[in-house]
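Journal club prep — side note

Before the paper discussion, L.F. wants everyone to see what a predicted structure for a comparable chain looks like in token form. Sequence:
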Amino acid sequence: MENVNKILKKYDIKPYRYERKGKTVIVDSKEKRYVLKPKEKDNEYIYEYLKSRNFDYYPIIINDREYEITEYIDEVDMPEEQKLSDMIDLVSLLHNKTTHFKEIDLADYKEIYEDIQNNIEYLKSYYTDIITLIESKVYMSPSEYLLARNISKIFGAIEFSKDQIDKWYELVSDKRKQRQVVLHNNLDLSHFIRGSSPYLINWSKSRIGTPIFDIYKLYKRHALDYDFEEILKHYERNYPLLEEEKKLFDILVSLPNKIEFNKNELEMCDLISKEIDLLIKTENLISPQYLKERIKE
């Protein structure tokens, strides 16, 4: 706490109470409440860019060398679905405000293509080895049986991604510019606060990149919790995705996670069930679009 006191004294903040939550410290002073969090990396250039684009939906920040100091925001109580909808509005505004086009050559697209293709081949080999081992057993455990019974879903998702990554590469092979935005890159309901204004907090992982990565990571984190068909429609009403962006998003969300048998039997059954539920939900989310494409062909 001694280091925190030095930081507060430096900015003439006179505390009378502290509350520590993990690495974060909430400080009460006579004037207001503050939140101090150790810096993971220097994001000054991100904040400066956001200011230049008139995006100021984050708490006022004092950028110290070691800590970020922000005002504590009293959050309005609201249903989670409404909170998520409001967060999507703010993320689409962030992407709209910071959109720019970066010159890119085929080698950059090829690197993305090869990274995803290598991941696809790795997952295919991994699950082939796993299912071969399981099917060689006289008696399967409940979790092994659950995986074996649903392995076609996993291989189907892998084959879909393998087919679509080739089509994505064809789609971008003649493009020399890529749309980029500021990515919050750590979207979670806990990182959105609705006070007198909406705010995104915890920008420690923010970077510049293609807009789908914010939505992709949010999907992977919350897909089983909410209706993402409506969430994606909501986002695209404010910020329509380009064809190549939408296809890359579909590929990334379709790729199955790697299931490792390193937990107890009850936990493994729960993990595998959730992974299968995620694959089914993803298939239902994106399959209508590809059914339309097949009909056109």
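L.F.'s comment for the group: The domain at 2-72 is CATH 3.30.200.20 (Phosphorylase Kinase; domain 1). Keep this in mind when we get to the figures.
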